[in-house]
């Protein structure tokens, strides 16, 4: 059910020429620890000006916008929540055109889902997103991603965390160091 919806959305976004990447729980399922998730989060490499094209994609896929006035909602939140009319599954389309998101979109991994090539956020960028969100579930996801993905590009990861620390006045680099320490400690205890 989810994979067929992901296929349809990815195919239509590609057809419309809108850069995108799947992130959130669907990407965690791919690169991290299995967990229950019943929604799809998609970052778009476009700002609110792309809303008319995104609405065409929604129509062709059978997604219904949840905001009564999508243009106003997207202008305020940069997100367009929608629901699949056939399954009731929620899909959040996140409009973004920041320098970080543009780079993350370039680094997206192409994974075959059914018959469709689908762009998923890289494990490094997924960790960054999880650390920025900072909720306990997100930090557990980040820890699982660190464990399951040897060979991560830590230079890229630490570089962006350092920049985001300054831009967002957060301690993301320290959070990463703490998670790495917890993982090393857990491995020693085994």
Task: Please render the helix and strand layout as text.
Blueprint: H1 2-16, E1 20-23, H2 24-31, E2 39-45, H3 51-61, E3 63-65, H4 70-77, E4 79-84, E5 90-96, H5 99-107, E6 109-113, E7 116-120, H6 123-133, H7 136-148, H8 154-168, H9 172-189
Parallel strand pairs: 2-5
Antiparallel strand pairs: 1-2, 3-4, 4-5, 6-7
Index terms:
globular, two-stranded antiparallel ribbon, 190 residues, five-stranded mixed β-sheet, alpha+beta, Beta Polymerase, domain 2
Beta-strand segment tally: 7
CATH third-tier fold name of the largest domain: Beta Polymerase, domain 2
Tell me what portion of residues adopts beta-strand conformation: 15-25%
CATH class category name of the largest domain = Alpha Beta
Rounded radius of gyration (Å): 17 Å
Task: Walk me through what this model shows.
The protein has 190 residues and is of the alpha+beta class. 57% of the residues lie in helices and 19% in strands. The chain contains nine helices and seven strands, in the order H-E-H-E-H-E-H-E-E-H-E-E-H-H-H-H. Helix 2 packs across helix 6 and helix 6 runs parallel beside helix 8.
What is the compact description of this entry?
The chain is an alpha+beta fold. The protein contains nine helices and seven strands.
């Amino acid at each position: 059910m989810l994979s067929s919806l992901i296929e349809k959305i990815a195919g239509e976004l590609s057809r419309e020429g809108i850069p995108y990447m799947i992130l959130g729980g669907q990407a965690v399922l791919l690169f991290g620890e299995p967990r229950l998730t019943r929604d799809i989060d998609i970052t778009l490499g476009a700002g609110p000006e792309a809303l008319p094209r995104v609405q065409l994609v929604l129509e062709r896929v059978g997604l219904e916008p949840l905001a009564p006035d999508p243009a106003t909602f997207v202008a305020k939140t940069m997100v367009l929540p929608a629901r699949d009319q056939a399954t009731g599954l929620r899909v959040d389309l996140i409009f973004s055109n920041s320098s970080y998101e543009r780079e993350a979109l370039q680094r997206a991994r192409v994974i075959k889902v059914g018959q469709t090539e689908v762009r998923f956020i890289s494990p490094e960028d997924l960790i960054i997103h999880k650390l920025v969100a900072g909720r306990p579930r997100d930090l557990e996801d980040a820890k699982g991603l660190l464990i399951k993905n040897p060979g991560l590009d830590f230079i890229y990861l630490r570089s962006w965390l350092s920049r985001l620390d300054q831009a967002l006045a957060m301690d993301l680099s320290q959070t990463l160091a703490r998670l790495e320490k917890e993982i090393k400690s857990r491995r020693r205890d085994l």
